[in-house]
Design a protein that fits this description.
binds iron/sulfur cluster; TIM Barrel; twelve-stranded mixed β-sheet; globular; alpha/beta; two-stranded antiparallel sheet; binds S-adenosylmethionine; 10 helices
């Protein structure tokens, strides 16, 4: 009897990861309060970071040996990575050609959107939690709202459609601004998704009792906007619950990672900027690919190590469990 070789990134719970999030840097030019402390963090030293060639090599192993068909570059702030356009270009030239997207705070996107589009970037998610100047400064500790808005407009003009906007609501800071943020996105043709705040901030300040839940977000929006759930069957492994606004076609999404976890449908895997595989945002262990890569491992060996790394993926993040412990790395160093 012959056995079928296990080719993809399967775990022990029947899930197969096909969506790879690659962190290109742990550095950032904002200091969002739900992510980083004011003074920043101890950044990874340059020799620890994967080079552009090393990133493309690992991405290529994922695409050509492990069935990964979606690559999202993130960080930290990926636009700070000098080789970004080249990395995107080389990734979109892989066969089979993966979908390639970017999650960014938008600062500098006005300058780079055209080049990224020309390199084959398919889509972009820009994080924007408020359209008010004072709230932006309070939340990000930087006066850069104008740059983000310019980045969004440039992405739209460059045809990186649909431009998605990610927003986190913080109680007492911007939770009263959900309707105006949605209106702003509707007016500009951006697709807004609210993300429940998760316990991934470096300061460990997250508190379930004060976080804004998906139910609250819906309640805040429903006064002003007629929201109807879109067909759940089309959701698949996508984490956002989607709602049409005033009958559509425009939609708003809510990613209820905490109150309605979607771990059972998870198809994600992450690679940190220093070459560690993480099978989950909340994983407390990582698997080192950098040492093997630098030690001369073949593509097949790297693929084998990656498959082994995925088998330990837990069935769920366990945030609601009293024994839950936040991972050592904060969101900015994992790659959100
Ligand atoms: N710097 C880029 C940005 O802000 O889009 C990419 C990295 S950032 C870590 C990726 C996403 O994670 C952003 O949309 C951000 O809002 C989100 N994020 C960061 N910390 C979070 C937290 N504690 N809970 C929920 N989302 C968070
Ligand atoms: Fe930087 Fe993104 Fe974290 Fe904000 S959420 S501090 S922009 S990495």
């Amino acid at each position: 009897m012959t056995t079928t070789p296990q080719l993809g990134l399967a775990d022990n719970y029947g899930r197969v990861a096909t969506d790879l999030r690659v962190s290109l840097t742990d550095r950032c030019n904002l200091r969002c309060t739900y992510c980083m402390p004011e003074e920043g963090l101890d950044w990874l030293a340059k020799p620890e970071l994967l080079t552009d060639d090393e990133i493309v090599r690992l991405v290529s192993v994922a695409v050509t040996h492990l069935g990964v068909d979606e690559i999202r570059f993130t960080g930290g702030e990926p636009l700070l990575r000098r080789g970004l356009v080249g990395i995107v270009d080389r990734t979109t030239n892989l066969l089979p050609r993966p979908q390639v997207s970017l999650t960014t705070n938008g600062i500098g996107l006005a300058r780079q959107a055209e080049a990224l589009r020309a390199a084959g970037l398919d889509r972009v998610n820009v994080s924007l939690d408020t359209v008010r100047q004072d709230t932006f400064e309070q939340l990000t500790r930087r006066d850069r709202l104008k740059d983000v808005l310019a980045g969004l407009a440039a992405a739209h003009a460059a045809g990186l459609a649909p431009v998605k906007v990610n927003a986190v609501l913080m109680r007492g800071v911007n939770d009263d601004q959900a309707p105006e943020l949605l209106q702003f996105c509707l007016d500009h043709g951006y697709e807004l998704r609210f993300i429940e705040q998760m316990p991934l901030d470096a300061q460990h300040g997250w508190d379930r009792s004060t976080m804004i839940t998906a139910d609250e977000i819906l309640e805040k929006l429903s006064d002003r906007f007629g929201l109807e759930p879109t067909d759940a069957a089309t959701r698949g492994s996508a984490p956002a619950e989607s709602f049409t606004v005033h009958g559509g076609p425009q939609t708003v999404g809510i990613i209820a990672s905490v109150t309605r976890p979607f771990c059972g449908d998870c198809d994600r895997v992450r690679l940190t900027a220093d070459g560690q595989v993480r099978d989950c945002l909340f994983a407390r262990t990582e698997s080192d690919l950098r040492t093997a890569l630098r030690g001369g491992a073949s593509d097949e060996e790297l693929a084998d190590r990656w498959r082994t790394a995925m088998r330990g993926k837990l069935p769920g993040h366990g945030i609601a469990d009293p024994s839950f412990l936040q991972p050592a790395r904060p969101m900015s160093a994992i790659g959100g």
